[in-house]
Write a structure and sequence with these properties.
Blueprint: H1 3-10, H2 13-29, H3 35-39, H4 48-60, E1 64-65, E2 74-75, H5 77-86, H6 95-106, H7 112-127, E3 130-135, E4 142-151, E5 154-161, E6 166-171, H8 179-193, H9 198-211, H10 218-232, E7 240-244, H11 246-250, H12 256-271, H13 277-282, E8 289-292, E9 305-312, E10 318-326, H14 332-353
Antiparallel strand pairs: 1-2, 3-7, 3-10, 4-5, 5-6, 8-9, 9-10
Helix pairs in contact: 2-4, 6-7, 6-14, 7-14, 8-10
Domain Heat-inducible transcription repressor HrcA C-terminal: 114-336
Keywords: Repressor, Stress response, Transcription, Transcription regulation
Function: Negative regulator of class I heat shock genes (grpE-dnaK-dnaJ and groELS operons). Prevents heat-shock induction of these operons.
Length: 354
């Protein structure tokens, strides 16, 4: 049993209700909740002095905090975590939210990248927050590889995938390459493909080059290594982070410290710090996960919250993630079903395409 669950079980009904009312009030308004406000909403009629005593006890437990000299309290990060794990009531997905997502994503996009761009816009529009979409790296088996000379110091490597997807990137080939060495390099790689994905081809290449050194001259070998390196060195391993709705985070922020927090958050996103951890964070389960403040290293400096869910392909393999970020006082009860539905919708759309 976690510490939060144990504390909840040990609370009496009055303490649990006071705690829940403080958190719900804070999530709704962003303001500290005072004892006088609580006395008007509690199911049991108690004095403001009694409520203040309960709030002091909750503060002693590390669940509430007093941001100012006033008697108002807000939940701590530990308190929010305990609320999310033990007391959060998740709403049903509202029909208007479902309709907005279905309408935005229902039309056929020209490609998966365009589809996921629209997912981000739809999610931020529905939640009035900032959305994150981690796109999958392309891991379909490769059908064909070709090297094309563009100039003395420029060449193009073309990858044709089994699903019809085509990628091409420009790189600097080794000096002295010839049409013959380019054909030899392509033939060598195409002989290795045999339905392998790019990541599988990279690991196989090193082993094969040692065994078949006589079959490829040094110039062709350098060309192969140069051509594959542009994928090996690619940031985030060809995954892409789409961020939409950043202006939503600034809409209601007035305090200077809040603006600074948002600026730090944007800096984190621009640098794509620890983006690879998105999938690692979600791979422990199919459902929605909530990370509050420093629980997620990506947003530890800005103290933001992340509600994230993985999406899967037709083989039930996790290939990406969608989420919503914002201040810790997110409306978790509403956001959770929206993120969950969006992830399921994206997974279905991608599975249908494949």
């Amino acid at each position: 049993m976690s510490d939060g669950s144990r504390i909840l079980e040990e609370m009496n009904d009055r303490s649990r209700e006071v705690f829940r009312r403080v958190v719900e009030g804070y999530l709704s308004t962003g303001e500290p909740v005072g004892s006088r406000t609580l006395t008007r909403t509690l199911s049991q009629k108690v004095s403001a002095a009694t409520v203040r005593n309960v709030m002091q006890d909750l503060e002693y437990l590390g669940l509430l905090d007093s941001p100012h000299v006033s008697a108002g309290r807000i939940p701590t990060q530990q308190g929010l975590r305990m609320f999310v794990d033990g007391l959060l009531e998740v709403d049903e997905l509202a029909m208007e939210d479902r309709a907005a997502l279905d309408q935005t994503l229902g039309d056929n996009a020209s490609d998966v990248s365009n589809l996921l761009d629209r997912v981000g816009s739809a999610l931020s529009g529905v939640t009035h927050g900032a959305s994150l979409v981690l796109t999958p790296k392309h891991e379909a088996p490769i059908r064909h590889i070709e090297f094309v000379s563009l100039a003395q110091d420029r060449a193009l490597v073309v990858l044709v995938f089994a699903d019809g997807h085509v990628e091409n990137r420009i790189f600097t080939p080794p000096p002295g390459q010839t049409p013959s060495s380019m054909r030899e390099a392509a033939n060598f790689l195409n002989a290795l493909i045999e339905g392998r994905t790019l990541s599988e081809l990279r690991s196989e290449f090193t082993k094969e080059i040692k065994k078949r050194r006589q079959e490829i001259d040094s110039l062709s070998q350098e060309l192969v290594e140069s051509g594959l390196a542009i994928w090996s060195d690619d940031a985030a391993d060809s995954a892409r982070l789409i961020v939409r709705g950043r202006s939503n985070l600034l809409g209601e922020q007035g305090a200077e410290e809040d603006l600074e927090r948002i600026r730090v958050l944007f800096d984190d996103l621009e640098r794509k710090r620890d983006i690879a951890e998105f999938l690692e964070l979600t791979e422990t389960g199919d459902g929605v996960r909530i990370f509050i403040g420093s629980e997620n290293k990506l947003f530890s400096l800005s103290g933001s919250s992340l509600v994230v869910s993985p999406y899967m392909n037709a083989d039930r393999k996790i290939i990406g993630a969608v989420g919503v970020i914002g201040p810790t006082r997110l409306n978790y009860g509403r956001i959770v079903p929206i993120v969950d539905y969006t992830a399921q919708l994206v997974g279905k759309l991608i599975s249908d395409r494949s």
